[in-house]
Amino acid sequence: MTTLEEIEAKYRSRLVRAAAALQEMEARVERMRKERTEPIAVIGMGCRFPGDARDPEAFWQMIRDGVDAVSEVPAHRAPTRESAHLSSAARWGAFLSNVDGFDAAFFGISPREACQLDPQQRLVLEVAWEALEHAGLVPQRLAGTTTGVFLGMSTNDYLLLGASAGTEARDAHTGTGTAHAFGPGRLSYFLGLRGPSMTVDTACSSSLVAVHLAIQSLRSGESSLALAGGVNLILHPSTTEIVADLQALSPDGRCRSFEARANGFVRGEGCGLVVLKRLSDAEADGDRVLALLRGSSVNADGHSAGLTAPSVLAQQEMLRQALANARVSAKDIGYVETHGTGTPLGDPIEIEALIEVLGAPRPNDEPCVLGAVKTNIGHLEAAAGIAGLIKVVQALRHESIPGNLHFTTLNPHISLQGTPFVIPTKPVPWPARKGSRPRLSGVSSFGMSGTNAHVIVEEAPHAEAAAAFEEPAAILLPISARTEAATRELAGAYAAILEPHGPGLNAMAFTAAVRRQHHEHRAAFVVSSREQFARLANAFARGETPAGVVAGQATAPGALTFVFSGQGAQWIGMGRELLAGQPVFAAALAECDAHAPFSLTRELREAADGRLNQTEIVQPVLFGVQIALVALLSSWGIEPVAVIGHSVGEIAAAYVAGALSLADAMRIVVLRGRIMQRAAGSGRMVAITASPEQAMQALGDATRNVSIAAINDRGSIVLSGPERELDVIVERLGGRAKKLDVDYAFHSPIMAPLADELARELVGLVPKPATRPMYSTVTGARLTGMELTAAYWADNVRQPVRFADAVHAAIDAGARDFLEIGPHPVLSANLRQCLVDQSTPGRVVSTLRRAEPEFPRLLRALAALYTRGHAVNFHALYPMRQPVVTLPTYPWQRKPYWLNRTPEPETTRADPARWVDHVRTLPAAEREAEIERAVRIDVATVLQLASPEEVPADRPLMELGVDSLMAVQVRHELSARTGEALPATVAFDYPTPKALARYLLERLSSVE
């Protein structure tokens, strides 16, 4: 029978569970509420507006200075026969320059397709890239993400131009080039974005509606990032005439918002995009927040006075909805960027709605400023709202509201009496507010079709001051572009922002390295001051490559091999700078100390000259420096594909290859040094001494059977080998070399007893299988790692160093780039000679150099690897998060593309039979080159390139702009040339001209 106590206990348990469930539900509701209302951060902007406003800062300067960008229609914009019939109202506009220019190659678009591509789509591609760069986002990293694209676009003048030009101006790319859906779709395709991608056409409110949709998509979790904005170009006079027929255009070409003389608006061109992210994500990712979008609303006029007539009630409701969505009070709105078209009907209605919702008197008589960017740049229609939004963001950032143009007398149908509204004609200070009340602004945009939009904008949260850190001795600042010319142009632009004022060098380097995409053509600047960078960057922009600058083309980099130098590279003071300034280096050396009988760290910091001449000291110290260098390089993303070690350097190589533990490696190097110390002065052998650089330069093939036995602390090189070859070297070097007795009789038969002793000391050593290839300088061949027994290390002491053989074996296996790991480059000349011997292109880089500042020297090595194409972990190089700063955007290498302007390719077609016969008469070694040239000619024909030289042999056809349609045409051209029935997928199966040429060579050879 249940007792009262048991009933009460069950009841209490149920109450506890119910309370917990209620708390959980309340927490979920609160999370959902926060998600639905979370502020959206504007983290980047890009624009192209009239008045040469090529970016947000240029736009700000233009409107701050009160520039009127309206002009008559440029002569080249309207055909002469049509210009004569333009009405006076249609003769005015705010235009962009050079809308026919486009960097088609950057976006992988062929000239043929570019000519059919609506310049609005071209603008969107370029401005989107610039906006992402402004945001400090690497476009490459967005591939596969749920980034959304929301684009306002309403006119289609380019299609009208094509129709006017006749059927000869139309091809299969006309549809994808002019249909509105392909604007955002092409951007999503190029960047590999998986989020929503849509065109918004609500006429004049399109771009602000696009921003509203982006906000909703971000808050719902549908998008993780969004690009939103709009574009508008005026390319055909008929569109302007249609608008003029509505009596909406100003006959004298001036947009006088809210003015008594207002008589219509002026059409304008432009493109603007903002990069948006949820505030919580932006803060977590360290993004620069330019402003916040607190809320937005969209509605329609409904049944108003007419289809194109505005509705005051709808506008009032829109404003209230936006305030509610943003959860802010009307009295806190300090600035409204109005729609402000300057029409006698629209302006009074807009002011009436604003008065009703925002017009109550403010505490302390605080004003609410009304602005209209249309007075500067005209009405950008589908891009009008985004122009207003970018203006507001810039006003918040610069703490000033620009004045309105063409305003003298208020429209008599408007009364601002008793309201907080002011319409300034000069800039109004708008300082950031102290305390809890941030500055707020509203942006309005109304579509002629009746769709209205409003966005509430708040100033960015006050950024915390960047954490103080010690300035590094040097900075590596990388710059890159798709072409060498663009790279040099970009370097000049970087230098320009430092004169006279600009961002700090550290923030510049961080943004350039971590927050920019790295392209094929690269330059890396190792500098210690803004002045030094400006000097070097300007020199590089002029076509020079001064010391301190490393430049190169990062194609597929060659396999990187670490080469560890032997004894003799040491110098007093080596490692001290890195010990003091690089924690990773110091930690790796300390780990070595844990397995050593003496402190390597102390020896580096305190050793006098004599200590580092003692083999038993220097060999473990050199090992420690090499391991610490590898650890530091590894933290920066630099890892070897294979390793080679010279003499004692083989121990470090074996450890890095994974064949030895650190304890075993240290044990070997300590024993080896101790035993070899006893050989000093005990042997007399014939050797050669000279400056390493002089020797390696002069020896050439005479070193085939000669090995480097040692390099002493004065930088002299000691060679051993057959006496006949040594005599040849003495004769070749003349007075720079001589036979002499040396203190080290290393790597010779005289070492046999000591080598046997080392083997006995190492009995029981059990190596492991190597995790990366190691090329032995004992055997000259690749090792598995299991050969590194006690007997091997004895041979390492007594056998000649077969360095060249090991390097040649690595080259045969694919090694192309070599990084010498050690305190001074003593093997680099040999490495270069080995590459020359095998006619193999490659790069030889070294880490440190005697008596040179170590960190800058190491950065130059990193710069050389970076420009070669090796991946660098710049996050680790700049561990202290720096603020994202505004750097110059990509320097587009534009060419003109327009209907019927395609350049004629330099190509001729030979009779198939004669061409095939010609190829077959060529020597076998020349056939592939001839076929490859023909393939490049045919590809250039299809792409409508001016020359086959513009078709790289190793570049995938798809990257050149060959789509599925063009692939069929490439196949047709090749079939016509060869007379062969080629598969329909041949251009996909063999994606480069070189691959196609080899395939055709096989086909033609098989039927001989």
TrEMBL record:
Entry-linked PROSITE patterns: CARRIER, KS3_1, KS3_2, PHOSPHOPANTETHEINE
Keywords: Acyltransferase, Coiled coil, Phosphopantetheine, Phosphoprotein, Transferase
InterPro entries, per the entry: Ac_transferase_dom_sf, ACP-like_sf, Acyl_transferase_dom, Acyl_Trfase/lysoPLipase, Ketoacyl_synth_AS, Ketoacyl_synth_C, Ketoacyl_synth_N, Malonyl_transacylase_ACP-bd
Domain of life: Bacteria
Recorded coiled-coil stretches: 8-35
Pfam short name (any one): Acyl_transf_1
SMART domains tied to this protein: PKS_AT, PKS_KS, PKS_PP, PKS_PP_betabranch
Parts of the chain that traverse the membrane: none
Boundaries of every Carrier domain copy: 929-1004
Domain (Ketosynthase family 3 (KS3)): residue spans on this chain: 37-459
GO molecular function: acyltransferase activity
Keyword Transferase: yes
Protein name in UniProt: Acyltransferase domain-containing protein
Species the sequence originates in: Pendulispora brunnea
